[in-house]
Amino acid sequence: MLDQDSKPTAESIAQHRKYLQDVWREAHTKWEDIDSYYNRTFRLWPEGMDRPEWFRPMRARAVIDQAVDHQMAHDPLISREPAGDGEEHQLKADKLEPALRSIMREASLLETSLTWKQAGKHLLLYGYAVIEDTVDGEVMASRRDKPRRLRGEDQDGYDMRLTLWDHKKKTMMPFRTQADHPARVLLDPRRKDPRIAIKHTYRYAIDLCELTRTRQEGLSKGRKVEVTVYDYDNPYEEVLCDEYWSIDWHALATDAGELLFVERNTWGFVPFSHAFSGYGQEPTNMATLDPSYLAVGLLDHARETLKAQAQEAAGRHNAVLGAAFNPMVTTGDASELQQQLARGDIVEVQSSNEVSWLKNQELPRYMFESEQWLDRDVELGTFSRQNAGIREQGVSTVGQQAILSTAAARRFVSPSKQLEHLASRSASHILQLIDVFKLDLKVRGHEIGPGMIESNYSVNVSFELVDPALTLQNREMGLREVQAGIKSRETYWSADARLEDASGERRRLLQDLIRSDPVVAKILAAEVAREMGILEMLEAEQQRMQQQELSPEGQGMEANIQNSLLSPGPPGGGGGPGGRPPRQPLTPDTVSPSRVGANLAG
User: Fold this and answer.
1) Which residues contact 458 (CB under 8 A, 6 or more apart)?
2) Secondary structure (DSSP) of 313-344
């Protein structure tokens, strides 16, 4: 009997793995066939038929790739509710959102393929996806262990290593989020939060040595772990291993039955999440558990149609080649005709009927129409061309195209929601690890620590497809609602502007308001002048001008300037500045003369 709570052994791990492999056997067999369609290696004709196999259209691959590119977004948006009432809790939630988003983006970019885009491809191709949340032990060790000065090392070299360690401690992010291939991770298909997980995959011998050696070093620090250091001859030998996870235990064993280590799972969760696409359905008369009926992707029920379409395309292509390279026939000696053609384009024959071309088979029209029927069948069951931005014939307006695209996109609602839930669980695991390990991180300029989490690991992650035209329209309508007083600014920021850090935006608005104050602007200008090195020159010039205004010469000069502005100008001009008459009369009873012709008066 399999016990999920007891301490694992090499035998119990092998038993768990065998049981789960039997459960997933039919699904794995089906995925291998689906891979042949996606990679264009499926057999085109039945055994024994002498027909060319090399031409296979890329329709199956295009269906998956276009669906992933156009319908499965992979840029996470984080939404975090405050852990309590009050402005302080709201401020922590607003600061946590951009920090967690930076962590998830960085974790995705640290993988060889984008994590959430790969997970979306697994959902659409296999109908099933698995996400693994783990911690990079090397990064954790680099952050934790302060470098010691080596014997004979100079101070400059030690200071350099110490500076790099301080940089790693502040900026290196230890979390990793991987979209493992579904066939390499064995989970209970009946539970969304599995109690056990077995990762059945190959590892390099040198990696196994590092894993076991690190845990052996932990024994001297009081860590409770049973470990056997793995020894190797070839560091890059690939060893098939079973990594076992449960709520209480973590272990690693080779496929040969050697148990490498067993330790307590201090994380508090199994670091794997999985989900089905939602396209499958269990049959009514199913007697045993078979997840192959639930793991249904876009190509599952389209494989026969895709093969028929490929056969038609291959047959038509062969017909084109036959017509283009039509063989020549002759009633004479074929070898003699071949020799004459090799010498030039002119051949010598006894009569014009002696040489001719082989008559080609004429293809009926229905052969071309049948491929259109197959193409329509594939499109109805997989991915519509409206989602790829291709306008259908007869659709002339943007509104009609938007209606068709929206209707076709509803097919991807279920896998999109499953992907969002997987990302939400992954984000929750990251928050739990930060809280358990007491980590203070700074990722892409955003700080996060246990104090911001407040022992609340709930978070919501969404992936939204951005339509520029629709986004602009929503923002315009949102601004009108804010101006009308029926929507708050924070609701506008979160719902229409897709802004995560509302508290930070409010602070930046207050900073703009402060900068617009004349006194603050004068202080900032003085600070910039000090940075430019001209503040003393400006202060000296300002002091000189003030002294000049207070001196008798300055006062007389100022009086002369005022008098010149009010005194009559040169002959032919008025009494205002520039020789023009004043705009206001000298007295209430005096009529101002017209300016027209004033410059011509003699």
Assistant:
1) 80, 81, 428
2) HHHHHHHHHHHHTPPEEESS-HHHHHHHHHH-
| pLDDT surpassing 70 at residue 408 | no
According to the per-residue pLDDT averaged within each range, which of 78-92, 210-224, 353-367 is highest?
A: 78-92
One-letter amino acid for residue 257 of the chain: G
C-alpha–C-alpha distance, residues 182 and 296, integer Å? 13
Q: Which residue has the tokens 């974790």?
A: 107
As a whole number of angstroms, the distance between CA 461 and CA 532 comes to 46
Contact residues for 94 (Cβ-Cβ < 8 A; gap 6+): 80, 500, 501, 502, 503, 504
Q: How far apart are CA 496 and CA 504, in angstroms?
A: 17
- Write a three-state SS string for 375-439: HHHHHHHCCCHHHHCCCCCCCCCHHHHHHHHHHHHHHHHHHHHHHHHHHHHHHHHHHHHHHHHCC
| Angle ∠(219,225,227) on CA atoms, nearest 5 | 90
Which residue type is seen at 107?
Answer: A
Residue 573 has pLDDT above 50, yes or no: no
Angle at 424 between CA 497 and CA 191, to 5 degrees: 150
**Per-residue pLDDT for 266 more than 50?**
yes
Q: Mean of the per-residue pLDDT values for the chain?
A: 82
pLDDT value for 185: 97
pLDDT beyond 80 at 245? yes
Q: What are residue 460's phi and psi, to 5 degrees?
A: -120, 125
Cβ–Cβ under 8 Å, residues 107 and 115:
yes
The single-letter DSSP state of residue 582 is P
Alpha carbon 349 to chain centroid distance?
Answer: 71
422: buried, middle or exposed (CB in 10 Å: 19+, 13-18, 0-12)? buried
Please list, in sequence order, all residues whose beta carbon lies within 8 angstroms of the beta carbon of residue 408, skipping any fewer than 6 positions away. Answer: 384, 386, 387
pLDDT at position 589 over 60: no
Whether residue 117 contacts residue 72, with contact meaning beta carbons closer than 8 Å, is answered with yes
Residue 394 has pLDDT above 70, yes or no: no
User: What are residue 176's DSSP bridge partners?
Assistant: 134
State the DSSP code for 183.
G
Q: Which of 461, 450, 454 is nearest to 426 (CA)?
A: 461
pLDDT of res. 220: 59
First and final CA of the chain: distance in angstroms? Answer: 124
